[in-house]
Amino acid sequence: MKNIIKISLVSACMGLALSSCQSDLTSLNDDPKHPSVLPSENLLATAMYQSSYYMDNPSVNFNNYRFFTQQWAETQYPDETQYNLITRNQPRNHFNRMYVYSINNLRQAKTNLKNEVEAEDIRTNKLATLEIEEIFIWENLVDTYGDIPYSETFKPDEILTPKYDDAKTIYIDLIKRINDVIATIKPTVKGYAPVSGLTSGDFVYSGDMTKWIKFANSIKLRLGMNLADVDPALAKATVESAVLGGVISSEAEAYKFGYDGNTFSSPVFDNLVASNRNDFLPSELVINTMKNLSDPRMSIWFTQFEGGYKGGVFGELNDPYTKFSQLGPYFRSATTASNLLSLAEVTFLKAEAAARNYSVGDTAVNLYNAAVKVSMRENGVSDLTTDAYLLANPYNPANWKQSIGVQAWIAMFNKGFASWNFTRRLDNPVLVNPPKSNLSSVPYRMPYSDQEYVLNGANVNAAAAKIGGDKATTKLFWDVN
């Protein structure tokens, strides 16, 4: 994988891919190690690695999702838990990783694929793979920033300063794109012979198009649920269509980008172990919530301090690192995959859909129980122990947002982006703005990249005015409660 990704990086010009790339590649024409036209599989590999690694990255320099959901605390440098998003340029860094290193490579892969010799069915599936992967990254961008450059992007010969599109309009288009691309996929020939997609560059599903269909429908499910409070009719239709089409239903179908632990390591390992940064702790909110529920995952996830569990105070300069429970060996493996659309998340989304009276094949209580069991199994907890946990912490239909919200928040521990979606949509658990916060409330979005104000000033200023201010405290269009 190392060579594929190193070669692929030639295609990503430094700086935002919304403007034209200026690199002159003619000198590489005769160099087989630096081809001027990269195979689509190489470009997919790079996009998958970059998007997965940086969506999952707990570094204080990037997305900060784990701090937005107050699941991790800091001991030495509390700026990020005090919601300082300026000093380290997190908005710029995440913006560039998703646009330049991820979507840019996928767009180029689509272009290059046209000139690659393939059977028509395989070419169609390869194009579908690139399209679904691109939609996945767009969904991350729009749910991180809100209105973003979308329809006018990646047209360097026509548009150097793309407009910012309305976030709901983007949502509607992404749903349409999912429906359209699923209709093109040919998982088998005449119903029996499998037809692959991009195999060698596909480090998640290895070209299995049946799994790509389930992944696409699961993205659609996530989009539909986010629309639930702002457009109930569209949300219901989208969610029911996604579930009917088939969503992730096993661990083997979850979107997990793996690491070999040698050439590439888990981003969590890189920040907890390789960096020797003894700073990150489970927060007091996480520890106390799980204590109150007698959650068996605590002993798997965290170390003990003086015979018990002690979390760091969120947003404060805490006592020395050794005075607290720490993130245990479970999170410190170099080979732990980035599980970016998990079976647990999909099952909790279905439970929420059922609680909203959508038709998703089962009741809210059954899906709530199933979702908790999926998370427990994922973390090595026995079904017997889980049954006792559910007996003590049953689904509460009178306050389903709290039941599902709190349990999903715990289950999404270390799945920062998914957790942030649940907390923003369900407002549970209740997150309190820390006393020393740089903001007037907890973050509901990431501010725009500071580079956009230099390179695309008129459009980013117009977007900021439209949404009510380019602030982390400005809610996304779907976060209406």
From TrEMBL:
Domain of life: Bacteria
UniProt KW Signal keyword: yes
Annotated InterPro entries: SusD-like_2, TPR-like_helical_dom_sf
Signal peptide start and end residues: 1-22
Pfam family, one: SusD-like_2
UniProt keyword annotations, A-Z: Signal
Record-given protein name: Susd and RagB outer membrane lipoprotein domain protein
